[in-house]
Amino acid sequence: MSTEELFGYASAIVVGLVIGLAGGGGSILTVPIFVYVFGIPTVLATTYSLFVVGVTSLVGSINHLYRKRVDLRVTLAFALPSFISVYLSRRFLVPALPDPLFQFEQFVLPKSNAILYFFAIVMILAARAMIRSDEPERGEAADGQPRYGTLALDGLAVGLLTGTIGAGGGFLIVPMLVLLAGLPIHRAVATSVLIIAANSFVGFLGDVQHTTLNWRFILPFTGLSIVGIFLGIYLARFVAPDRLKQGFGWFVLVVASYMIIRELSQAL
């Protein structure tokens, strides 16, 4: 095993660690790790990401369910429409995207590059949200009554994002649950982890019908990620959440910048 591969497998522990500490965010590391460290094609990397994130988040959500932090009604209202969006995007939209995605005279934008650019933009938005680290106010749900219709529409949108780039979208889900469902931040984080797990599994099921998977690679990587989430859940007792999110936000911003610079340099 090469030094680069050892680094990649060690990064799996970091993915789980971040999810365990922050309740999300590890998913936006998996695709860059798969693409740039292991050299996996972009679309296949998003499939692997869905599996790893789904299993790891499920383990984390079991802990939250045991401690009764998850709002199951809100989970169903948000997740059911999201399931439909995730499955349809993985089953039909992503395979149907043309390759190249765009071409004008000498300029060619391959499908895989377009997904990576989109992923990097999402990472920058996630980094901005984490660096600011402001707890959202109650917004539309200031009266404590969930806005189930709006939650369902937002679930569709997050499902499309998850299905397209293979990330759970926790940085979007948590503020929505606070603003539209009136959940306290700790319950919003716990509920988000369960939604991420379910969304990721549904997206993965949309892929297995037309994708050949390397289980010898994905299962050990997932196992290490699970080790990381147990470590993260333990360390969460001692780490200030705001400092953690800000530090991780800067790290994500650096990775996203690297992705954009690398892709642009290869295109020019």
Itemize the secondary structure elements and their pairings.
Elements: H1 3-22, H2 27-37, H3 42-66, H4 72-96, E1 102-104, E2 107-109, H5 111-132, H6 148-165, H7 170-181, H8 185-208, H9 215-235, H10 241-267
Antiparallel strand pairs: 1-2
Helix pairs in contact: 1-2, 1-9, 2-3, 3-8, 3-9, 4-6, 4-8, 5-10, 6-7, 7-8
Question: Please, could you describe this protein's structure?
Answer:
The structure is a single chain. The chain has 268 residues and is mainly α. Helix content is 76%, strand content 2%. It is built from ten helices and two strands. A hairpin with a 2-residue loop joins strand 1 (102-104) and strand 2 (107-109). Helix 3 (42-66) runs parallel beside helix 9 and helix 5 (111-132) packs antiparallel against helix 10. The longest helix is centred in the C-terminal third of the chain and has 27 residues, at 241-267.
Strand percentage: under 5%
Low-confidence stretches: none
What structural class do helix, strand and pairing data support?
mainly alpha
Query: Whole-number average pLDDT?
Result: 82
Integer count of domains: 1
> How many strands appear in the DSSP assignment?
2
Element order: H for helix, E for strand: HHHHEEHHHHHH
Shape: globular
Number of helices: 10
Q: Percentage of helical residues?
A: over 70%
* Rg calculated over all Cα atoms: 18 Å
Alpha carbon gap, first and last residue: 33 Å
Q: Write out the strand line-up for the largest beta sheet, numbering strands in chain order.
A: 1-2
